[in-house]
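Morning F.,

Quick status update on the modeling queue. The single chain you submitted on Monday has been processed. Sequence for confirmation:
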Amino acid sequence: MKRILLIFVILIWFGSVWAQQEENVIGPKRGTVTASLLLGNSDSYNWSLTLPSANQSYYSISSPQSLNIPTNNSLVNMIGIEGKWFLTDKWAIRFNGSSMLDATPARDAVPGVSASSPIATIPAYRSISGSASALVIANLGVDRYFATNNRHLYWYASPVVNLLYGRLSGFNVSDIDTGTLLNSTADPGTTRYGELYGIGLSGVFGAEFYTESGIVFGFEMRGVSYMYTVNSILPVEGMKPLKSDNHTISFLALPTVKIGFRF
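Structure tokens below.
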């Protein structure tokens, strides 16, 4: 009987010690999922994505370089949501990105009757050119975490692949001659587009502070980053697209503050 009681006491003691050790693990561990709001500023290549006008005598294209200064940031600017899933206590997969799709259906013109008509004057409706746009930005990486003497604080380093794609398409339809208000075909069935794509690699480092309530505060920066982007336009079907490419290398760029939760 005494042996049974002794074994029972030992099991209770080991269980309480193990539970305390589990409770002391405030930072990330295998299976942890975090979701964070990103505050700061992000690279913006979308400004160089333009839709060429129809029936022009010549066309030009801008270089798809980054619009923003690498350190030009604002703590009140929300740039997206980031998610992480910890494969082990030290390794995590990260992902953040955004996308947008937009479409405007084309509408044919409706002819009217000019003022010179002996019957009446009926106004005409101009056509509406169709358009469609798509923009996708994605960043995927793997984080390696390192513990510090503060059990709430961890720092990490990560290689991150940066991807972006954007496209603007325009579709012309039959229109009217504003002089006679009659049907007049203006470049029917022609599709024009502007397209932008890029791929890059960034070396990211940062730190995260884990609270006992599950809230996570973080800060990170791109130590070094390389981005290759291509911008192209096609004003008329059947022609070769006009292209411009760009190489961008940045150092200690795009500081970002993160506020999130641990699950």
